[in-house]
Amino acid sequence: MRSFISPFAATASLTLAILTSTAAIAQTTAERPVVCEALSAAEPAALIDVCTALIDNAATPESARLDAMITRAAALHNSGQTDKALAEIASVIAKDSSRPRAFRARGEILRQTGRMEAAFEALNQAIRLEPDNATGYANRANAFNNARKYDRAIEDYNEALRLKPDFAQAFSDRGAAWYFKGEYQKAIADYDEALRLEPHRARTYSNRSAAYRKLGRTEKAIEDVTTAIRIDPTQPEFFDNRGLDLAGNSDYARAIADYDEAIKLRPEAKFLTNRGDAYQARKDYDRAIADYDAALKLDPKFQRAYNNRGAAWVKKGDRSRALKDYAEAVRLNPSDSTAAANHKEITQEIERLGSLSYQKNLPSFNCATAKRQVEKAICADASLAQLDRNINDVFLRVIASAESDSRRAALAQTRQQRNFIDKRNSSFGKRGYDLRQAMEDRLDKLNTIARQ
Length: 452
Known about the structure:
Helix content: over 70%
Largest sheet: none
Keywords: Repeat, Signal, TPR repeat
InterPro entries: TPR-like_helical_dom_sf, TPR_rpt, Ycf3
Pfam family, one: TPR_11
C-alpha cells in the first residue's frame, strides 16, 4: 500500500565540522580555566571576554594579538554575531594578508552562513598560503559537501588525510560525503576509523547511526545514536534520530518519548512533524494534527507538515481540508511526488463521490481569514471566486505535468503563478487594472499550457 506520508524531511541529521571543538565529550568547561586558543570548547561569551583581555593587553605580541582576534571572531560567530565576526577577520587580514588561519576562519563562517562563492574564495586563498595544512583541505571539503559536490569533497578529504593520517574529524566528514553519495558501507568504514581515533565523538556515532539506518540495520543504528545521547544528551537531533529509528521499528511509544525530548531541548518544525507522524501511525489523528499545526506555526513553509496533515485529515474523513493541505504541499514543493499523488488521488475521490459541489463558487483560499482587499473582493463575487478556484485547479494540473518532464519546468511554472498573484495583489484598486480580465487571461494561459 502506498504511503501517504511524505518522507522528504524524515531523515537523520548529519553534522560536519564547525569552528569550535567538535570532540563532543560531555564535560564542563568550569573544570579548567578558559584560554583564548583555536578550537576552544569554552562557551562563546567566556571566550570573547578572555580573548578581549588578551587583545587589549599592551604587552601582548602582535602575532598573538592577531591569533586572539581570529579566535574571538569564531566566538562572536558562534554567539550569533556573524557580522562582527567577519569584520574582526577583515581587520586581521588588513594587518596581515598572509595569515592562512584568518582565511580559513572567514571561509568557515561564510560556509556556515550559506555564502558559498565567497567561502570558496577564502578557503582557496588559505590553501594557497599554506598548502601543507590539512585543516585547510578539510574545511574546503566541507564546503564542497555543502555544495553537493561530493567527489570534489572526497578529493580534499583525501589530501587532508594524506597530510594528517590521524585526522579523526576528516574521517568523520569524509564519511558524510560517502553517505550523501549513497555509499553507506564506505561511510561506515570512515566513521569506524574516526571513532577508533577519537572514541568519544558523539556526532560521529550519530552520523554512523544514520548510515546503518540506510542499510536497514536498525538495531545498530539505535545502538550508535544511544551512545551519542549518552556522551552528549544536549543535542536534540540525537533524540530525533533515535525516534526515527524506533518509529522504523514500529515502536511508536518510545519514538514519541524521544521526540518529546528533542522538542523540549529545541522546538523545531521537523521534530514536531516527526512526532505527528508517530501519532498518526498510532491512529491518534487529533494529536497528529495538533503537532502538524504547531510545526506550521513555527515554520509556515514546512512543506512536509502540510502533506502529512493532509493524510491525517483523510483518515478523519475531512476531504476538503485534506485537499487544501495537499494543494499547499504541491505548491511549496512541486518535486514531492507523494504530495502530488495524494492531491490527485483525493481530487479524484471527491469527484467520484460527487462532493465537489461544496466547493462551487468558493475560491482556493479561506475567505474567513482573507485580509487583502483583492481577496475580499474575490470572496464577495461568486464568479470571481469560481475563476480563482479554476485558476488554482488548472495550475496544479500544469505543475503535475511539468514535474513529469523536469523539476526546473515545474519551478518555472510556480514562479509564473507567484508573479501573477503578486501583480494581482499590488495592482488591485489601481487605475486601469481590471481584476476579472486579468484572472480570465491567466486562466486562458494556463489552459493553453495544460493542453500542450
